[in-house]
Description:
The chain has four helices and five strands. It has about 100 residues and is α+β, with helices and mostly antiparallel strands.
Amino acid sequence: MVMNLLSALQFHQMTTQIPQALFLAMPRGARVPRGSFCRLEVKRLLPAFMEMGAEEHQGTWGAFKAFNPERCVADLFRYRPSSGRMFFWKLCMSIATGRAHVPRY
């Protein structure tokens, strides 16, 4: 399981929006956890894409994986047609507030 989309953007402090659900990426065929403390939005990915852009982080309750900022922005554009326009709108809001990630080379 890897945290993605708006949840990962919030974790990386790239948006001022608070996600209404926990967005997770899971391999195809994996079981969705039950009894969660919040609503889950799950995107199914091929196992080859699960590690691409995933970073390990240490939190209060242990280690977890989240996609890096570049992957989060790319996924917002990728899932825009299937998830409606809300993701794209929230990305535009994060860019407008100046919190969007700009890679430095």
